[in-house]
Amino acid sequence: MTKTIALYGVMLLCSLQTLQAQQEGKMETDRPDQTESPYITKLKYLQGEIGFNIEKANGLTTLVHPTALWKYGLSKRFELRLITQVISVKTPLIIPAGNTINTGLLPVQLGGKLALFEEKGLLPKTSLLFHVAPAKLASKKFQAQKWAPNFRFSMQNSLSKNISLGYNLGAEWDGESDTPFWIYTLATGFNLGSKWYTYTEVFGSVRNKEHAEHNADIGFAYSINDDLRADISSGLSLMEKNNWYVAVGVSFRFSAK
Description:
Elements: H1 2-14, E1 45-57, E2 60-73, E3 78-92, E4 99-105, E5 109-117, E6 125-133, E7 148-158, E8 163-172, E9 181-192, E10 196-206, E11 213-225, E12 228-237, E13 244-255
Antiparallel strand pairs: 1-2, 1-13, 2-3, 3-4, 3-5, 5-6, 6-7, 7-8, 8-9, 9-10, 10-11, 11-12, 12-13
């Protein structure tokens, strides 16, 4: 893990160049898809992306209420990021009493996004996202054994004026094992006029000596104005029956000068 972090540190130093990476005009968001956007939050703006999910996976039903991503445009090339998730997990019990429900805060993630390259020909617009989740910065029931870092490269190519191809590659640690999950996402986005946006996506992960997990989802977003956006999405596992999720959310930004 130390070698991996060192390698990406060298790549960051090699990538320093003059960029105009912050978003202008209509707000770009990381939700509702799993593919994170390479755009940087507008300078000195605070952006919130709030979502509510219901998920079914491996016999467990999870209500996320809410997941919240907060972003602050610290410079034209860098944003600060804070991620919190409050969840309720219903676990079926093989006893007459029925189910048990655990509610609490998952480990809080602290991090940032750094713009690396602007799109030029086949070279995609690229940013590096990174977070770390301190093991004990969570509700007692959901605390981890170790600090859990994650990183991903977020890339995007414009296929036409209204069609884009976004993709992420990276790794995540779960706070229990030293072996990471290697993750990927691939999403095709379509602008439907000036207000509507839709996408289709595949995403997944794999860890050494474990079966890979592959998923697909679809969603829609509506820009009420440049600084306010609502969304809805749904996805399912391509590997396991009865694993699915449905989500709704809202994103907004305002000047924090």
